[in-house]
Amino acid sequence: MKAIILAGGYATRLRPLTDDLSKCLLPVGGRPMVDWILDRVQEVEEIDEVHVVTNSRFAQDFEDWAKLKDGVTVHDDKTTSNEDRLGAIGDVAFTLDHARIDDDVIVIAGDNLFDYALQDYVDFWRGKGVASAVAVRDVGDLRLASQYGIVELDGDDRVLSFEEKPANPTTTLCATASYIYHREHVPLIGRYLAEDNPPDQSGSMVEWLCTREPVYGYWFSGPWLDIGDAEQLLVADNMLRRAQGLPERDRYEFEI
Fold first, then answer.
1. Closest by alpha carbon to 178, among 216, 212, 141, 145?
2. 250, part of any domain
3. Quick check: 88 and 206 in contact, CB under 8 A?
4. 3-state SS assignment for residue 52
5. What are the E-state strand segments in 27-88?
């Protein structure tokens, strides 16, 4: 199995913090955000390659970061601005091609912090045969659910429907930016893009795929943060500072 960590965005809502540094490299709890995700990825026995995809603006920073990591390859998608970005699904396709990946793939957004064991997620998915999967969490609030992709599952946890950021959600069960694609489904990512489907929202791929192939939802509970703005960044920083016995802060400050 290969892992792809998505770090190709420009995080315009976090400017000026992200003018010169990727959101995924901003420190939370005293470490770069992506470190916490890499810790989880490296706990999965089946993963033998980790690929981080970013853009030309931040590629060198990630190369420097990866020098201190084992088995991490950085890919520059050659974009330079929010206007010419490839989008999350575009970056997955780019990495699959650039790294010549023909294997099962787990894709995780580099700003998606969670506390569950990825090995449990992979074990769940393995039990479903030729299928893909998405990690899901009940956020317990319809207003909050409208900011994410909502998911309807059957009694066996197969995805029946998926809707990206609905104005009036009917459920609080949401997809999180952690996906597993079976190697037989990986070529469909290229087909999805070839049909001119939206390349940006990573959940759109699952919305399209679940009507064609089996996709299952892996339920988890516990902490989960999708860091999109300064308020969420501060929450993440303080959550991880508390876990390490560090004092909380009233505002986010950049520290190495």
1. 216
2. no
3. no
4. strand
5. 27-28, 31-32, 49-54, 72-76
User: Terminus-to-terminus CA distance in the chain, angstroms?
Assistant: 32
Instruction: Give strand ranges (E) for the chain.
Output: 2-6, 27-28, 31-32, 49-54, 72-76, 105-109, 112-114, 132-138, 149-153, 159-164, 173-181, 215-219, 224-226
Other Cβ atoms less than 10 A from the Cβ of 22: the count is 27
User: CATH no. for residue 217?
Assistant: 3.90.550.10
Per-residue pLDDT of the chain (256 residues; tens, 9 = 90+): 999 999 988 877 878 888 888 989 999 988 999 999 999 999 999 999 999 999 999 999 999 999 989 889 999 999 988 888 899 999 999 999 999 999 999 999 999 899 899 999 999 999 999 999 999 999 888 888 888 889 999 999 999 999 888 888 888 999 999 999 999 999 999 999 999 999 988 889 999 999 999 999 999 988 888 887 888 889 888 988 888 888 899 988 876 5
Residue 21 structural domain:
2-131+177-199+208-243
Query: What pTM value is reported for the model?
Result: 0.93
CA 98 to chain centre: 19
CA distances from 124 to 60, 130, 132, 138, 184 (A): 36, 12, 11, 18, 18
**Residue 44 in contact with residue 122, Cβ under 8 Å?**
yes
53, 5 Cβ separation under 8 angstroms:
yes
